Amino acid sequence: MLKAKKLSGKFISLLIASVVIIALLIVAIATGGVNALVPCPDCAGAECETCGGATQVIGSFWALLPPIIAIGLALITKEVFSSLFIGIVSGAILAAGGNFTGTVDNVVTTGLTSAVADTAGIFVFLVELGILVALVNKAGGSKAFGDWAEKHVKTKVGAALCTFALGVLIFIDDYFNCLTVGSVMRPVTDKHKISRSKLAFLIDATAAPICMIAPISSWAAAVSQYAADGQGLNLFVAAIPMNFYSILTLVFVVALILMKFDFGPMKQHELNAQNGDLFSGAKISLNDAGEPNSRGKVLDLILPIVVLLVSSVFALIYVGGFFGVDAWGGTDFKGDFIGAFGNTDATIALPWGGIITLVVTIAYMCIRKVVSFKEAMDALPQGFIAMVPAIFILTFATALKNMTGELGAKYFVGAMMNNFPDTLSKFLPAVIFIVACVLAFATGTSWGTFGILIPIVTAMFDAGDPLFVLGVSACLAGAVCGDHCSPISDTTIMSSAGAECEHLNHVSTQIPYAMFVAIVSFVCYIIAGFIPNALIMLPLSIVIMVGALFVLKYIVTKKEQPKVDAKE
Predict the structure, then answer these.
(1) Distance (Å) of CA 493 to CA 1, 51, 283
(2) Which residues contact 175 (CB under 8 A, 6 or more apart)?
(3) Is the pTM of this model over 0.90?
(4) Which residues have C-beta within 8 Å of that of residue 462, sequence separation ≥ 6?
(5) How distant is the alpha carbon of residue 272 from its chain centre?
(6) Can you give the C-alpha Rg of the chain in angstroms?
(7) E strands, 332-484, where?
(8) List of the chain residues with pLDDT < 70
């Protein structure tokens, strides 16, 4: 009864909030309150290709309102799907100028249809990984690895460090990282009573940051394509040493593990895990693959992962044109490994890597007779069902991102950045970091964020200016930070899926950690504006991070001490 009342309360609060928000949007549009704010920057009346004369909210702060609504509702009501959908509808109303038919068309076409088209390749890859996990579990590979880890990984610190190390080793792609690390390490972290929220954080804290500082990764490729001609990968590499958020997040994770320290909501989740509740009351309904094969070996887990890694790298450079012709018919990168990596498309390549891995894995397991062909075929629907929640959230999150783009968030951000006073240029990297954080948080995409900001940032500085590379670093760092905090981020969603953790549990426990690193990074960018030297700033930033953690631990411990004394 109590649970029913709790669910009813969430539903009512979500319903009331949704009705009020949509009503306000309709009233604002009908009265001209919204339209009068900011004209479309490309507006030429009814002939305007950007807005068609239908609305003038494009390029204003209103473009960021739909994701703010979705994120706010999700955090308040803990209902992800409905909150995201309300955000999509809000954006559709704004884009259609309050027109009902236009709103429906925007929801279906610009939102959901485009979202499915944009992420179809990732959906396929998710299902392939779900199938692979089901196969490995059925063959007994995960159980064998868990038994091995139980003998060799003796402590909770060791289990957390192993998770971190595996995340660092898989630097090719963040999606690949999230799902692979989660499936491999879940048995180990469960045995050592590490909460699923903490596992999701460890996955998320290594996925995007390590990809952002690895020259050979899908993220390096994405940054390269957004940079001006002739800069590309060189600019990405030059920006690595002062990408404070990415580097300091890795330092933060290691320090937190070694210090055996947690704070914020994560501390309660870890206490719950010690008492046997790994999910903090929000257990995911998992797909049961049946009893694992008792003859499973660690190799039954390791081999599929190695094959997946090798085949994914092969597919990425193949699509990029390393072997002759790329996916778009070009031949510019034949024999050029780095160039092909910069020219690739992960949404095309990763599904191919997954298909190759599945074929090899099924053949191997059938030959070993740890899985029959029928059991291998049964894993197909099991893998799909396991990934349905992640696919739904990713679809809605991508639709919301598309709606934000349709409303011209880039115009608003570009105007704000270009109007920054020249007299405060030393503080500009710190401002760029904050702007990137906010934009990535609101849109749920780090790639989209640096796609918008890199051209703006590179145009703000001369190539020889020391602040040029620092500004790009701040842009990339802020994009990762906002991505970490956002409930609608694809990487955050994948981390929850990899850890099999309730999504909003992951978000609520990770935000305080991400914000702590963000504050330290912001301070470092202020200092770096006056000392734009990586040889000085990188070690200094690490010292500041570790020092800040010790101070926080002292404050938290001292605050809790009177409670302990009182109980005694």
Answers:
(1) 31, 32, 16
(2) 122, 125, 126, 346, 350, 490, 491, 494
(3) no
(4) 468
(5) 26
(6) 24
(7) none
(8) 1-18, 20-60, 75, 78, 80, 98, 118-119, 172-173, 176, 216-218, 221-222, 224-233, 281-291, 342, 390, 409-410, 413-423, 561-568
